[in-house]
Amino acid sequence: MADQVTLLDFWPSPFGMRIRIALAEKGIKYEYKEEDLRNKSPLLLQMNPVHKKIPVLIHNSKPICESLIAVQYIDEVWNDKSPLLPSDPYQKSQARFWADYVDKKIYEVGRKLWTKKGEEQEAAKKEFIEAIKLLEQELGDKTYFGGDKLGFVDVALIPFYTWFKGYETFGNFNVEKESPKFIAWAKRCIQIESVSKSLPDQDKVYDFIVEIRKKIGVE
Amino acid sequence: MTTNQEEVKLLGATGSPFVCRVQIALKLKEIEYKFVEENLVNKSELLLKYNPIYKKVPVFVHNDKPIIESLVILEYIDEIWKQNPILPSDPYQRSLARFWSKFIDDKIVLASSKSVFTIDEKEREKHIEESTEALQILENELKGKFFGGEEINFVDIAAVFIAFWIPLVQDIADLQLFTDEKFPKLYNWSQEFLNHPVVKQNLPPRDPLFAFFKARYDGLLAASK
């Protein structure tokens, strides 16, 4: 039976981007369905009744929700090429830890950079820069977090790069100044085809952030 | 099976639900390990060395290599010691187990704690509502005796917080968050789980833990006046 793979997604979502990259890395053909988050499709509500959120990966009618869980699933099912997680259990545990760190520190804190102001924003900026520096330290001299090739942590992290223009503009700082090695890593990642074709343009994402800020009333 | 007790260490604190998860998994797989009781008010150099990022327990150390975050530790343990598996072998079932464990961490643990340890009445009501909603979702999801079916699995172990800690802290605030009337299946599950031979011997003593949380609760009340 031919595999049927569908991705319910929303173009600026860094979580959706993770799954797009993983599918591209493995060369999996899939149907991309853009969701209107103000008018969620019956399919989305049926496939993710608990959170009603994107992204949702659907494989032969079975839904997998939560981006990192979906990426691990993809890695386990399509295990014949481009492994994303290391085979060594200890290295695997470290990859899982750092991907979780990205969720806790980059997404949550990054969000405050363009939704908050004053002291709260300043505190978020400090935390964000600290997190980037720690990730930079973890990267070390490696080409990617996965070593010679793209790995789980790279896939978890690189989508947020598309949001940097927004973070930097509204947070009033420059990531490259703070962490040149981090930006060098990001630029290496987007040279990879599976990444570049999965990520939207930074300017487009920036315009999107500007629009939301207006909608939610941040001035 | 470990040959040398020194190879496997768990830095923990009696009373931590996250440490408890790891202890249950280790016991289920009959892995011998050294438990290092950490003083969380006065953290040891060892803890700070092994977990400089969060400075928290549990820290699992295998052959001098540390692993942190309880669910990450559980996955590692399951991969190294294959007896009595706690995660299913089928990738789709594994994704479901990971989903529900994450759900417990994201939607139940914090919200239920805040249902007790929050002074502001409106805030507290919000947390109670969130916890109740989340517990209901879990109630609907439970199909068998355990989340793992006939035997306990990854999700059951993650849910130890619900079985032991929620009833304990809700008593302090006289809250009826998790009851057999509201969640009959989940309540039943909690009784089966707490009586499971492996789980039973790895739960912290109730009275000192109750006293600890009561002191925290009283402190919170006093500070708000």
Sequence-ordered SSE layout with sheet pairings:
The complex is a heterodimer of chains A (219) and B (225).
Chain A: E1 5-9, H1 14-25, E2 31-34, H2 42-47, E3 56-59, E4 62-65, H3 67-77, H4 89-115, H5 118-139, H6 152-157, H7 164-171, H8 175-178, H9 180-189, H10 193-196, H11 202-216
Parallel strand pairs in A: 1-2
Antiparallel strand pairs in A: 1-3, 3-4
Helix pairs in contact in A: 1-3, 4-5, 4-7
Chain B: E1 8-12, H1 17-28, E2 34-37, H2 45-50, E3 59-62, E4 65-68, H3 70-80, H4 91-116, H5 121-141, H6 154-158, H7 160-172, H8 184-195, H9 197-200, H10 206-223
Parallel strand pairs in B: 1-2
Antiparallel strand pairs in B: 1-3, 3-4
Domain GST C-terminal (chain B): 90-212
Enzyme class (chain B): transferase
Catalytic activity (chain B): RX + glutathione = an S-substituted glutathione + a halide anion + H(+)
Keywords:
heterodimer; A: 219 residues; alpha+beta; Glutaredoxin; Glutathione S-transferase Yfyf (Class Pi), Chain A, domain 2; 2 domains; 4-stranded mixed beta sheet; 4 strands; 57% helix; 8% strand; globular; B: 225 residues; GST_C_Tau (chain B); glutathione transferase (chain B); Glutathione-S-Trfase_C_sf (chain B); transferase (chain B); glutathione transferase activity (chain B)
